[in-house]
Amino acid sequence: MGPHKGVGILVDGSSQYNVPQADCEDVTVCRLTPKQTEYGVIGTSHLFYEEYRMSERQVLNKKNLGITAGLPLTASEGGIEDLRKDIQRLMDIEAIKQLKHAYFRCVDTANLEELSTLFHDDVSVHFRGGHYEWKLQGKHEYVDNIGQSFTSEAVGQHNAHHPEVQILSDTEATAIWYLADNMWILNHNVKTHGTALYWDRYLKVDGRWLIKDTNYERIYELNDKLEQRPKFSSHYLSVHGRKIQP
Fold first, then answer.
1. Which site among 19, 130, 199, 224 is 20 to 30 Å from 96 CA-CA?
2. What is the pLDDT of residue 44?
3. In terms of DSSP bridges, do strands 154-167 and 172-185 run parallel, antiparallel, or are they unpaired?
4. Is 29 a member of any domain?
5. CATH code of the domain covering residue 139
6. Residue 245 counted as domain residue
7. Residue 104 lies in a domain
8. pLDDT (0 to 100) of residue 19
9. Rounded percentage of the chain residues whose pLDDT exceeds 90
10. Residue 119 domain flag
């Protein structure tokens, strides 16, 4: 492969570069199949180019994110049945918080079996980073891509904070989350870190809340080419991630 000017290359279908950000300009998304790269297996995503320039970014407010007001978080003035509904609403908010926390735990530990139980079968995914845009449709495609990304040569730390949960009905809800993350791709000596806003939609199916739509857009992102391989004293995915060669 020649110089990478004008192309951002995603490793294993994830949001990580396998070339320094300084070598990636203008055209911002390039997802490559194994036959089209010398950098090893890139994952199962199809090949496409899509420009995503920072000047085209939307304002990250509730209106643009499609977040509307939920049911009011005020105590009803009725009797015991209204009180039960109030308590159920609070329990639903707690269940959605636990759902999102479980999502990040399963991602960083490559716990694909449990991760697949957190999504609606027809989940839609749309992530926007500094030099990438990632779109997927369906639970199996998303979980497969996570498995391709969180390998024995990856280290991930993804934490969600500041939940703003809107209960829209007994079976539908939305939420905004503030993400802070660090991601190392060790076999390419690359580290990506930054923050992002997530906005999700949830459906309650057979008594369980599931992630139906999930989106994020970066607030800031740094992509560092490391001079040498980090010497982690503990590396969970080296044992439990998908095995690839260093």
1. 130
2. 35
3. antiparallel
4. no
5. 3.10.450.50
6. no
7. yes
8. 36
9. 72
10. yes
- Spatial contact of 4 and 23, defined as CB atoms under 8 Å apart: yes
Task: Residue 240: name the closest of 141, 159, 147 by CA.
Answer: 147
Q: What is the DSSP string of the chain?
A: ----TT--BBGGGSS-BSS-GGG--S---EE--GGG-SSS---SPPPEE----GGGPPP-SHHHHT----S--S--SS-HHHHHHHHHHHHHHHHHHHHHHHHHHHHHTT-HHHHGGGEEEEEEEEEE-SS-EEEEESHHHHHHHHHHHSBTTEEEEEEEEEEEEEE-SSSEEEEEEEEEEEEEEGGGTEEEEEEEEEEEEEEEETTEEEEEEEEEEEEEEEEEE-SS----S--THHHHSBP---
* Rounded Cα gap, residues 203 and 124, in angstroms: 13
Q: What is the pLDDT of residue 135?
A: 94
The burial of 206, by beta-carbon neighbours within 10 Å (0-12 exposed, 13-18 middle, 19 or more buried), is given as exposed
- pLDDT of 140 > 90? The answer is yes
The predicted-structure confidence for 5-56, as pLDDT tens digits, reads as follows 333 334 444 444 333 344 433 333 333 333 222 222 333 333 233 444 555 6
* Strand order across the 190-205 sheet: 133-137, 119-128, 208-225, 190-205, 172-185, 154-167
Query: What is the domain extent for residue 207?
Result: 72-240
Structure token pair of residue 231: 């010497």
Contact between residue 189 and residue 204 where contact means Cβ atoms under 8 Å apart: no
Q: Indicate the number of domains in the chain.
A: 1
Q: Which two tokens stand for residue 119?
A: 């999504």
